[in-house]
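Handover notes (outgoing to incoming on-call)

Open items:
1. Anti-sigma regulatory factor (Ser/Thr protein kinase): sequence verified, structure written out, both below. Nothing else pending on this one.
2. Nothing else urgent.
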Amino acid sequence: MADCLGTRRARVASAPPSKHEGVRHLPALPNGGDQPVSRTFLRLTGLHATGAVVRQVRERLVSWVRQTGLDEDQVADVGLAAHEAMANVIDHAYEQPGGVFDLYAFTDEDTVTVTVTDRGNWKRTPQGRPTLRGRGLLIIRQLTRQFELTAHAHGTIVRMTWRTRSRPPLRRA
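Anti-sigma regulatory factor (Ser/Thr protein kinase) structure tokens:
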């Protein structure tokens, strides 16, 4: 991932917020990555809206989500829904190439939330051109427990939430 994301900020942290660790490359998870933690987030900002970056961010997100207590079916749902949201940035957010987006993922005791944000304006599909596309939002809606799409003058926010089905008890220090 360093090829496409090496100049971008990635942050993985565990509670309390004073223990944030900022890094250039996408780091390993806290606690050795084998135990869920009560509050964990992943933040990837200023990402180039390209297919190569979307693929790499999806891989990184899926790796992170596996540490949150979601089962493998839910992990696959998160990966696909986030991919669709990021693909929409490429297809609809910017008139010209060169746009950017942010991905923020957070888990607490019983949910995982992923947010994809861009700074573009919704680009309309040309009239009269038949397309087999346009099912990304439907896919996201079907894969998530909660889905919010907020479009405003400074971009679009897609927020997706999943409830954990079975989460092992948290280790207490």
